[in-house]
Every structure is written in C-alpha cells, then in structure tokens.
Amino acid sequence: MSARRHTYILPAIVIAFCAITCAPEHKEPVLKDLFSPHFLIGAAIADDVVMNEQGRDAAIVLRHYNTVTAENVMKWASIHPSWETYVFEPADRFVAFGQRHNMVIIGHTLVWHNQTDNAAFVDAQGKLLSRDAMLARLKEHITTVVGRYKGKVKGWDVVNEALTDEGPLRASLWVQTIGEDFIAKAFEFAHEADPDAELYYNDFSLDKPAKRDAVVQLVKDLQARGLRVDGVGIQGHWGMDYPTTENLEAFLTAIGALGVKVLVTEMDVDILPPAWDYQGADINARVELREELNPYPDGLPDTMQTVLANRYAELFSILVKHSRIVDRVTLWGVTDSTSWLNDWPVRGRTSYPLLFDREYKAKPAFQAVVNTARAGR
Ligand code: GLA
C-alpha cells in the first residue's frame, strides 16, 4: 500500500473510532457500576433497539444498564396475537440480546387486561369462556411462554395492573371468566413452568395508601396459599409532585415487611404540565392536545432541566436509602425521543421524562442520579 493511501486511511480510522467511542454516551460514568452496591439498573427496550445492536440506543443500554425488560414483545397481544398463533421471533431476539450481553432479563407481562386480544376470552360463538375453559387457556399461555424462556428470563411480571386505585380488583375479563383467584392461578402456572424464575406482581400508583394496602393484602394472600412471590413492581410513572416521599417510603417499608423485594419497573418522570388531575398510568385514558399542554416543543429550558434533575435526585435518594428492599430500577425507555409519554395521555407532545435526551446525551438528571449513587455508598 502506498504511503499516500496511508495518509488517508489512518485519519479515517481515527475518525471512525472516535465516532464510536467519543459519542456523548461514552463519556459519562457508568450507571450499572455506580449502582452495583445498591440495585440493578436497566431499561425497557423496544424491538428496534434489539434489531439495531450497533445503534446509539443499544450503545446506551449496553454501557449503562445490566438489566433489560421487554417493552412490548412479550405482551399477550404481541406474542400470542390470536388463539392459534404465537409469534416468538421478537421475544426470542430480545432474550438472545440480553443473553449475549450477560444482562438480567425481565419478562413483561403474562397477564394484563390491556394489550390482550378480547378474543382470548370468548369461544367460537363469541360467548365468554367458562372458568375452566379460561383457566386452561391461561395455563397454556403461561406454560408456553415461560417454558420457552425457562432458565433465561430471571423474573416475570406475572400479573400487571389487576387492582383499581381504590384497592378492589378491576372488573376485567380475567375476573369475569376465571374469578378473583386468576392472580393466584397465574402465579401457580408460572412457577410450574419455571420453578427457578422470580415472580412479581406489577402495578402503578402503589404508593397511594388504598392501593398499597390492597397490594399488601394480595401478596399476603399469595403467600398464605403457599405460592412463590418474589416481589412487587411499582411501575414508577412518576410526576413532579407524586409520589410524595412519605407515601413512597411507606410503600417500600410495607412491601419490605412482607419479606419480598420491590422492583421499580417502569420509571420515568413527567415534567410536562399535568393534562388532568389523574396520576396513574392507565393507557386507555386520553386527553386532547392543547398548546399549553406542550410548552417545550423545541427543547427543555435549562431551568426546567434543573427542576427535573432535582426531582430525579429526590426519588433516587429514597430508592438508594431503601436499597435493602429495592432490588432493581428499570427506566421505561432509553431516550426522550421514543418515550411513550410523547403520546400519552396527550398525543403529539414533546416529552422529557428520561435520563438521555434526543441527541443521546446524558441530561442533568443523569448527573443528579449519579450523585445519589455516590452519596449512598
Ligand atoms: C403500562 C404497562 C407497560 C406500558 C406502559 C406504557 O405501564 O405496564 O407495559 O404499556 O403502560 O408504555
């Protein structure tokens, strides 16, 4: 090769190397190292992230996180879209990605009232299935899905969002077909399918006293039946003024007293003006877009970045303080650009709920979170 070609090729290699290693996401301290004395830290990832392993979203995930949750590909509607059909490829890809990178893999979710085809609950004539027929379907679904990833998925969100904010069970098709013990049955079937997998109940707004008391009762009931239950997932779709420190600490303490873990399973912090006074994460709830609900379409001002950073610091400080109970914190998404909060509860807003911005750069909230890990050592 001529000396002249070298003069072109070498700088090109240096530039290419720098494009990979000098990208903003490669400069910050590594979250999973900082949090290793406290808890696992991870993200929910979409199929796009898995498919694009050399991409910048994957780079953030692989650098900072030691656990991944399936954002959508393991939900009933995705993996089991009609009664006769399973679609495993995306979930297989997700699990293989986690395994390739030695990450703790979390399955989300086996039983939910949303993102489950209503056809799953009816017979060929459209009539609601009997308890026995629906129990057989539930068992078949859980055995198939959990069985397929046995020994690979560390823990399952067995049941998602079964409780109302007031405490009693939602009147879902699960309750209407099987009855109130559908939760216990789901835990039983999941344990049979993979006796080593951890099993969790997952929900939002569990910090609210009525819902907290209900989930405590639910775990006690599962324990009284001799079922395996390893933890309670509090989703963590949080805002600037909820949960209160008092309610969050009361929830952590109450779950800790049951001898099970707390997982923060879907954390994001919403700094946009509240569209309503509802504080939950029911995906069916919707509000029309109005200009005042989308105040930062071109970027979050520095002052608001600081407000968000302070709120993240406040929440993470509580989680670090209770790290004997908190086993994992998973962010719901990788960067602000793909967060579900750009479209919920109002479609078309520009949202800023995560630690990395639309340019893949760590936000001031990232640094604030880093500081809580250091302060908690
Ligand atoms: C709930 C579900 C998640 C996800 C979010 C919104 O919290 O548990 O799977 O659908 O809503 O993205």
| Shape assignment | globular
Strands, total number: 9
Ligand identities: alpha-D-galactopyranose
Number of domains: 1
How many helix segments?
A: 13
Provide the residue-averaged pLDDT: 94
How far apart lie the N and C ends?
54 Å
Bin the strand percentage. 5-15%
Unreliable stretches covering 5 or more consecutive residues: none
CATH-derived topology:
TIM Barrel
Largest beta-sheet details: 8 strands, parallel, barrel
Q: Describe the strand arrangement of the main beta sheet, using strand numbers.
A: 1-2-3-4-5-6-8-9
SS-based structural class?
alpha/beta
Helix content: 25-40%
Q: CATH homologous superfamily, by name?
A: Glycosidases
CATH class value:
Alpha Beta
CATH architecture label name? Alpha-Beta Barrel
Order of helices and strands: HHEHHEHHEHEHHEHEEHEHEH
Radius of gyration: 22 Å
